[in-house]
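ENTRY TYPE: protein
CONTENTS: sequence, structure tokens:
***
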Amino acid sequence: MSITVLDTHSAMKRILLAPVADRVDLLRSMLEPSRGMYRYHPGEVDLVAMHLAASGFPIDRDEERCLDALETLAAAGAWERMQRALDEALTVLLEATPGLGAPDITVLFVLGDPGDEHFMGPCQGVTGFGGISGHIVITLWPFPENVERLEATAVHELHHNLRFGPGGVVWDPMTVTVGDHIVSEGLADAFARQLYGDELGPTRIGVPHLHDDEIFGKVLTGLDVTGMQNFTAWVHGDPSAERFGLTPVGLPMGAGYAAGNRLVDTYLAATGQTAAQALHADSSEIIAATLRRG
């Protein structure tokens, strides 16, 4: 299997410099390699609409800000760093899980929307999605902290991609729980920490709550909640739930990530495994390791 980080730098620059009337078609062409990510989506997918709804860079404003941000990423070697990190992380995962099979992976790295207050504020300028086998999408604004964490962000999504890939954990929308989602985030963060350390590894939105026992206890009460419409509030927190018109549950941004890190760390300490070795570990076993400690 191979990982391809698409050259979106050239494509985004071309889009942002093109006449406004030409940008939709250019953007759709850039996004086309990610179409397979929506293979479970009902009906025909408008890739441009998906991009804009997911805080992707705008095509009708903020051109100069976006072009400057692109150059910041290029100067930091973002695409090359991401490719190298993913190739190295894949080697680690393959060594830890003999016989691991997975398809080739396409990585779409896009600039975020500087005019999106939720993305730039509560999300701290970065979102990622790696849960559909064979595809990773990372949307980012080059705040210094995000540029520093590029590698960790990429390998976090790779862990998701292989955890839920062929022969891995099955994400069944009918039975999946908040606990399953939180554990997957904790494992992906633990893998990023395994490779890049405790300073760069954790997802930024979860860091402020890593040692908050009250928030951890609150998240534990929701582990058995089902219905994927409920996950945003428990995993990402109330700000994201409110952004998407969902019911808040009284948790700050990133609470589920912080809780996932704690659950996974307890399990890894109890079993002596690395996050790479625990790629396909059952979430119920991971949660039980914490509950046994009481």
